[in-house]
Each structure stands twice: as structure tokens, then as C-alpha cells.
Amino acid sequence: MPTVEFEGHTFNVDEDGFIDSFENFNEAWMRYVKKEEGIEELTEEHRMVIQILQDYYRKNGIAPMVRILSKLTGFKLKHIYELFPSGPGKGACKMAGLPKPTGCV
After folding, report:
1. What does the DSSP 8-state code read for residue 18?
2. Which of 8, 29, 49, 50 keeps 20 to 30 A from 84, CA to CA?
3. Residue 105, pLDDT above cutoff 90
């Protein structure tokens, strides 16, 4: 399994760059993905989306579908893409430490 080193932390990642386990998520991982995604600043809106994704994952074992994420956050899909340019599945789920979604997130 490939590894990523960032700020003194080593993360195991899959072939798509997703962290190997939700339990290994930390703030350094979030900052790493932020840098990789080209996001200049993590706002409260970013953090809210990440928190909602993590809470949903803890309860259900999967990431929510896009329409559920939109409903839970109160954000239109367009705004979620503005926050996470690579999208809710690749960018937001990756930053939240979730596994790569298998379906339409």
C-alpha cells in the first residue's frame, strides 16, 4: 500500500489516495488533502460538510448520497462543488477520512 508523508505523519493510502482507515483520520490528513485539492482556506462550511460526512459514516458505515448530503448540509450541490472542486465523493469524502465511495455520492 502506498504511503504519504505530511507534517511528520505517515498515512497509508489506496491507489486513489484515500486514507486506509477512518480511524487514522486527523487534522494533518485534512490539511494534506486541502493542499492536494488546491483549497486555499478551510472555512466553517468546509468543516461542517466534513463533520456531517463523518457523523453519517459513523452511523451508517457509508458516505451519504449527494442528495442526502445536500439535505443534511442545507447546501445546493453547486455550492458543495465550490467548496470541494473535485466533488463530494473525491474531495469531501477524502478530506473527511472516509473510504472511497463505491456509488454515486
Report:
1. -
2. 8
3. no
